[in-house]
Amino acid sequence: MNAPQEPPVTLLPTGFIDLLQHEAEAEAQGIARIMDVFSQYGYEQVRPPLIEFEASLLAGGGQALSAQTFRILDPDSRRMLALRPDMTTQISRIAATRLAERPRPLRLSYAGSCVLVGTPGRDGARQITQVGLELIGPDSAEADAEVILVTSSALSALQVANVSIDLSCPNIAKALIATETFTAAQEATLIQALDRKDVAAVRDLGGTLAPVLTQLLRATGPARHALEILTQLDLPLSAADEVRRLQEVVNAVWTADPTIILTIDPAEFRGWQYHTGLCMTVFAADVREEIGRGGRYLSYEQEAACGMTLRPEALLKATPPVSLKKRVYLPHGTSAARSHKLREDGFATVAGLNEVSSPCAEARRLRCAYYILQDKLVEV
Amino acid sequence: MNAPQEPPVTLLPTGFIDLLQHEAEAEAQGIARIMDVFSQYGYEQVRPPLIEFEASLLAGGGQALSAQTFRILDPDSRRMLALRPDMTTQISRIAATRLAERPRPLRLSYAGSCVLVGTPGRDGARQITQVGLELIGPDSAEADAEVILVTSSALSALQVANVSIDLSCPNIAKALIATETFTAAQEATLIQALDRKDVAAVRDLGGTLAPVLTQLLRATGPARHALEILTQLDLPLSAADEVRRLQEVVNAVWTADPTIILTIDPAEFRGWQYHTGLCMTVFAADVREEIGRGGRYLSYEQEAACGMTLRPEALLKATPPVSLKKRVYLPHGTSAARSHKLREDGFATVAGLNEVSSPCAEARRLRCAYYILQDKLVEV
């Protein structure tokens, strides 16, 4: 038997990549821009660590990501550590501990890398960047709307084109279903049918709720159209409350900025594991995957919270290319004052470390757009 | 026996911390500022992943950090992954693979988090941030000097006060020692004595080299003074070459910027495990630990390289406090146009999500310096 061949040391594991110049700059600048907009709305940056005790990271809502979490044994504490698969749990922990005494509403923002175990054989990203905000304390339509408005403002600042924010509220259908006596299995099958928008199956499985549930499926699309249908449905009190809240959120958003595109998909359930009210998914027309997601949930000690997490890897596909500084080649011996002035003027100076016969050719070789000749800036 | 009590889920493992508002902002802004200066000198940003195959991360110079590296089994490849304890090895890999065809000098910059296993019982940081640059290709005094100049420029941009850069060159003493026939044990003891600046021990152990080695110990301190001594020593050819190179580096730095404070410690060996020439340690007067370190080394396939890694955690102790946007409380119902204008003017707007009886009291409660009253900006 041959020993298994070691792959070259230059290979990266599936799902982990190098970002090179333009990509790395775009990510860094994009994150900085988003965080700046968050700060303009009074969101204060926190930076939790990459690693925590497993028990902390997987507490509460974090439990949902347990199977996607890498663990490591800590030689110091002899306890299991975990690499964060998500940052929301960390922000909740900070809000409930070090910032417990801070007045509410508490507005926090964060940016950082997370690591997922991934699915063997699939080549999805396993290191993902998250940039997000959490509005902790209030439970109101105004608070939900603020999360949407700030998100929209950040995406505008990045010139992400054709953004739409899809609102869903699994509680509407759940409140309806709770009025009937389904078995757990029936209920699960019915929810799957709703999630698939399978009208025939919903009719079959819905019993006396079939008419209202099929109407609910029709209430999908632009928010104005969907709300017209939703507000006319004959709903039990708690479901009607959810619809009213949805209407209030849409009104509050459009009062502040009527250009924001909102859609509604009331019967979406997928991926909303710990959310307790409004759920939001952010799309840009030219990007297949979602560029952000968020919603209302309960933070530590059942404190109300609503948040949004943006995914730079996805959303930067919909932004204009990042502009880099123009490079100027400085022949060896160019004065420090001259090169200082060029940097002040916004150029990147590329110093010649030795004499060359043709500064122009050397500038071209080093991908510079300009070089200095007799103290003058000359185009290559 | 009682079951061991689980600590509260809010506790963090030793060496991992949360950065809150001012600290998190200072780190983000400081890193962005340093990276911007690097880009002004033509350094192009790359962003390698947090995790690689163990074999890649610990190749070459990376081996030195093996004992400080966390490993994880990858369920996808069934191979060992490692969390990077340092980024230099990653930059070397990128230079030798995806950027192999790029013309040299290749100038790369990077910023990111690294994780160390740490020493059980000690409470040093286990997550550290690195911001650095690598100048790959040339092996010359001009290249060494550029690394010093760009570092100094970045620290000036951050207003780090009283920076000094300490230069050492273990090769001078090693070249001297190689001219005598010491046993390996004798050599190790002698190097330890030199490193400790233990003149008596160096005299005892140095044999015929004792006079020149004790002179070498005297050549410590401000660069001008140290070089006066070093250049007058009677040295073997290779050690004299190292001194000449050191003199050239100092001259090149001072030609470009005579205000840079350089010191020399020719007999320092600690921590320089894979360096092949000049070694640099950066200090600021008010910070006990070093704020950066770097030097000349051989990259993949023996390519010449010189680099510098700055430690924001340390250097931000020597920078002026970060200035945050002034917060303005907006009573519920403030117009979108008004709040937009305030953000454009550089304020952070804190929206009132409901009516309050005293906007002034609410502004104070939410740590705002101002609030809006009848469309006017009023100080709290």
TrEMBL record, chains A, B:
The keyword Cytoplasm applies. One of its GO terms (molecular function) is glycosyltransferase activity. Keywords: Amino-acid biosynthesis, Cytoplasm, Glycosyltransferase, Histidine biosynthesis, Transferase. The keyword Transferase applies. It is found in: Cytoplasm. Pfam families: tRNA-synt_His. Pathway: Amino-acid biosynthesis; L-histidine biosynthesis; L-histidine from 5-phospho-alpha-D-ribose 1-diphosphate: step 1/9. Residues 15-315 form the Class II Histidinyl-tRNA synthetase (HisRS)-like catalytic core domain. It comes from the Bacteria. Belongs to the class-II aminoacyl-tRNA synthetase family. HisZ subfamily. This function is generally fulfilled by the C-terminal part of HisG, which is missing in some bacteria such as this one. Heteromultimer composed of HisG and HisZ subunits. This is ATP phosphoribosyltransferase regulatory subunit. It comes from Sorlinia euscelidii. The lineage of its organism: Bacteria, Pseudomonadati, Pseudomonadota, Alphaproteobacteria, Acetobacterales.
